[in-house]
Amino acid sequence: MRWICWVEIQGLYAAAAREAGLAEAERPVVVLRGGRVFDGCREAFAAGLRLGSPARQVLCDVPGATVVEWADVDATARARAFWDRCLAHTPYVEPVEPHQALLGLPLPDDPDGLPGGWAPGGWAPGGWAPGGWAPGGWAPGGRAPGGRAPGGWAPGGWAPGGWAPGGWAPGGRAQGAEGGRRQAADRRLQAELKALAEAAASFGFAAFAGAGSSRVVARAAARALRAEFLEWRPGTAPQRLEGAQVIAPRQAGGGGIGSRHAGGLAIGRPEGGREDAGRRAGVRRLEGPAVRIAIVSPGAEARFLAPLPVTFLPLPPEVQRRLQQLGITRIGEAARVSEDEWARQLGLQGRQISRWSRGIDPEPVKPAWPPRRLARRSELGGVRDRDPLERELSRSAALLAAQLDRRGEGCQQVGLILELADGRVLHAERTLPRLRHTAYPIQQGLHALLTQLLDGLRESVEVAAVTAEVGLIGPVDWRQMELWDDRLLRERRERIEGALSLLHQRFPARVIGLGMHTPTSWREQMLQYADPYRWSRKA
User: Fold this and answer.
1) Beta carbons within 10 angstroms of residue 496's beta carbon
2) Which pTM value belongs to this model?
3) DSSP H helical segments within 379-533, as ranges?
C-alpha cells in the first residue's frame, strides 16, 4: 500500500525572519498574511497568540512582539532544505507551500529482514530456525530433552507441517501470520513518519504529520493536530481524533494534551507587566521542537473526518461561504448529503465535496521536487527572422510531447531560452493551467514566450541558439484509448518534419512548407475499419 503523508511546519517563517534580521532575538515574532496571523515563534504562541486573529489583536495577545509581513520573509532556502531532507525518505515529494509538503511513502506490506519478523527460513530471534525450534525447543534430528517448554510437549504435540492449537498449523504459519506482517509494516511506517516529522521540526518549533490513504485525509489529519496543539486552551476538552492513531514521540517541555500546558506550550498571561511580558514572552523556555503524528487506517476515513470542521477541506473561500449559508459546519454533515444533491447545489465542485467528505481523493502525489525538466537545444547560427524560430520551436514541442507521451506524463510549465549572437541569454517561463502531454499547448506556450522576449528587446537581434524546456512534470490521468491508433501518423509526421529540416538546411533562402492536408472522410475511415486490406503503411 502507498501511504500519503502531509507534513506541516510551524515557526518556519518566524525563524526565517530572525535569520534575515527582521526581528530581534529577544522579542517574539509574529508573521501576518492578509492582515491576519499566519505564523509565529514558540514564545508568541505560548503567550496566547492564535492563528487567524486580526493584526490589531496581536499586540494585545503578545505585548512587545515584532510584527512582520509574510511577503517580506524569504523562506525559500529553508523550504528547499526541508524538501531535500524529505528526498532521503521518498522520491515522491510535492511541495505545497514553503512550510507544507505532500509525500508518497511506498511501503511494502511484508518487509523482509525486519527484527522480530520473518526472515528466509523462519522467524528471527525468539522464533524458529531451519530444522526446528531454537533454545528450549527442538533441534535438528529431534526434540531436545524436556520438549518445547519446561514440562515437556504441550497437549497435541506438533503436527506435520507445524504446531497444533495455539502454535503452528499445517503448512507453516497460519494464525497470527497476517497480524505479524501488519505489525511489522506499521512499525516501519511509524519509524518513517517519526524521522520525517523530526526532520521537519528542526526548521521551526513544531511539525505535524498526517498519514492516510488519500491527500484530503492526510491534510485533515495534520490540520487537526495543529489545531489541537496550538489552539487548545485550559478548561476546554481536547479534540478526540476518531479512527486515527496519534503519536507524540517528542513533546516540547514535557507537557501533554489535557494538562495546563497544551502540547508543551505554556498558555496564559504572565504575572508581570506588559513590558516584562514583551521581553520574556511570559513563558518558560521550552527545550527542543515538538512533533505530532496521526495515522488514519484504511477504511476509517469517513469516521475520522466526520467530527472535523468543514474548513479542513481544501475548498475556495466562496464555496466555504456557501456551506455556511447551508448550515453545514462538520464534514460528517456534508457526507450525509447525496452526491446528486451536491451536484445540484454546486455542480462539479459539489461532487468533489461529496467525495472528499468520505475521504475519497484519487489524485496521486506528484514527484515535483527536485523539479524535473526536459529540454531540447537547437543551434541556428544567427537567425533574425521569426519564422525559422517558430518552426524550430514547433519541432521541439512535438519531440518533447512525444517523450512525455511515451512515459505517460504531462507538463505544467513551459520555458524558453534564447542565446543571442552578442552573448546575451534571455529566459522566460510560463505555467499552464493543468498538465499537458500533447504538442499543441506546448507549441502555443513557446510561441507566446518567443513573442514576449522579442517584443521586449525592441530591436532586431541575431539568435544563435534556442532551447525549449518543459517542467513541473507529473503523471497524467488515465484516458480512453482511441479507436484508430495514430502511431503511424506520428511516424509519418516525424519523417516529413525531418525531410523539411534537411531542405531548409540545403536551401536556406527558399520558403519551404507543407501544402494543404485533405483529411480522410468519415466513410473512408469506416471502410478502413471494416476492410483490413485498406490499412497500409504506404498510405
Assistant:
1) 11
2) 0.62
3) 386-407, 439-457, 487-506, 522-530
Contact 44, 34 (CB under 8 A): no
270 and 414 part of one domain: no
**Are 97 and 196 in a shared domain?**
yes
* Domain end among 356, 387, 402: 356
**537 lies in some domain:** yes
Considering the domain boundaries, does residue 166 fall inside one?
Answer: no
Whether 95 and 192 share a structural domain: yes
Under a CB-based contact definition with an 8 Å cutoff, are residues 265 and 47 in contact?
Answer: no
- Does some domain include residue 474? yes
Residue pLDDT tens, the chain, 539 long: 679 999 999 999 999 999 999 988 889 999 999 999 999 999 999 888 989 899 999 989 999 999 999 999 999 999 999 999 999 888 889 999 999 999 998 765 444 433 333 333 333 333 333 333 333 334 333 433 334 333 344 433 443 444 434 344 444 444 466 777 778 888 888 999 999 999 999 999 999 999 999 999 999 999 999 988 887 665 555 667 888 888 877 544 334 333 333 344 443 333 344 334 333 333 333 456 789 999 999 999 999 999 999 999 999 989 999 999 999 999 999 999 999 999 998 888 899 999 999 999 988 888 888 888 899 999 988 888 888 999 999 999 999 999 998 888 888 899 999 999 988 999 999 988 888 888 888 998 999 999 999 988 878 889 999 999 998 887 776 655 555 555 566 667 767 777 877 787 777 767 676 666 677 777 877 777 777 665 554 44
What does the angle CA 250 – CA 256 – CA 259 come to, to the nearest 5 degrees? 165
**Of 22, 5, 26, residue with least CA distance to 14:** 22
- Cβ atoms within 10 Å of 49's Cβ, excluding its own: 23
Same domain membership, residue 380 and residue 332: no
DSSP codes, 237-294: PPPP-TTEEEEEEE-GGG--TTSSEETTEE-S--SS-HHHHHHHTTS----S-EEEEE
Same domain, 442 and 458: yes
Q: Are 35 and 54 in contact (CB under 8 A)?
A: yes
User: Which domain, by its residues, includes 318?
Assistant: 301-356
Q: What is the CATH number of the domain that holds 333?
A: 1.10.150.20
Q: Is 171 part of any domain?
A: no
485 three-class SS: coil
Residue 292 and residue 197 share a domain: yes
